[in-house]
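Technical note accompanying the year-one report. For the benefit of new consortium partners, we illustrate the data format agreed upon in the data management plan: each record pairs a sequence with a structure-token string. No post-processing was applied to the example shown here.
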Amino acid sequence: MSNPVICIGAAFVDELFHAKEEMLLATTNDAIVTKTAGGVSRNIAHQLALLGVPVQLISVFGNDSDGDWLKKVCSNAGVKLDASITKEGLSGKYTGILNVDGSLFSAFLTNAANYLITPDHLSKHKELLKTASYLLADANINVDTAEWLLAFSNETGIPFILEPVSVPPARKYKDVTLNGLYLVTPNEDELPVLCSEQASMTQMQIQELLGKGVQNIWLHNGQMGSALYNKEKAITLHAPSIDVVDCTGAGDGSLSGYLLAKHLGKEDMDCLKLAHTLSAEILQVNGAIATHLNQEKLLGLVNKYYPE
């Protein structure tokens, strides 16, 4: 078996309220509610496992019924939890309120306990981490934990990927030394908060991060597609035109598709095509995971969205 992708970060219960009509403030809105397993790192691990990529998840679960349920969902998908933590108390929950078009109106995060994933905890699992093909962390983890992972990556040569998640967690990394980071994956809102105020335009922000030693920057531009930058080149790819059902997890799915492509040894443009294809499929279903796909089906869909 090939070496696993090791994902470090959040595992939550996702409770999503889908508005039936246009959202109104300070009053009752009619909605349909769905409950799925979520959390950025957990979503990526789950999707990769369904696509046949070996994966480990290092996350935190409560010792409640939600925690038991989350662990079972992960295990059933094929995600290994050898170095995960079970804490006293409630599991983390992400409560999202979605507009009629599936876009996010607002969200709440409660009982997150990613602070328990410490450098000390990771140090105890060094032998497991040394088996990784890629290390991936979401920005919900503590900065000192991300710094430990980056140092470990630079020491071992195992590529480390940082997923910013959203503006508040991304902002924590503004003054962090990122030299040697293999890949960071911001969207248009997250990119500026990773950079200084002097870098006021996108190209200046890209150059600043490259100057800090980040090897690759994958900028997500929503419906406009994405662009992958490094010191040698920049490549761009448009997003497919689709009808969005639910925006939850589209970014996580995109990164899952990219990692699958890397696992299969594909070149950068083919990595982006596979990433966009998986993201497009997730946008057309409820929840953050494309449970209807396996590796073969996904690979067969690339030509649907990007015909030769």
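Partners are asked to follow this layout when depositing records. The two ends are 32 Å apart (CA to CA).
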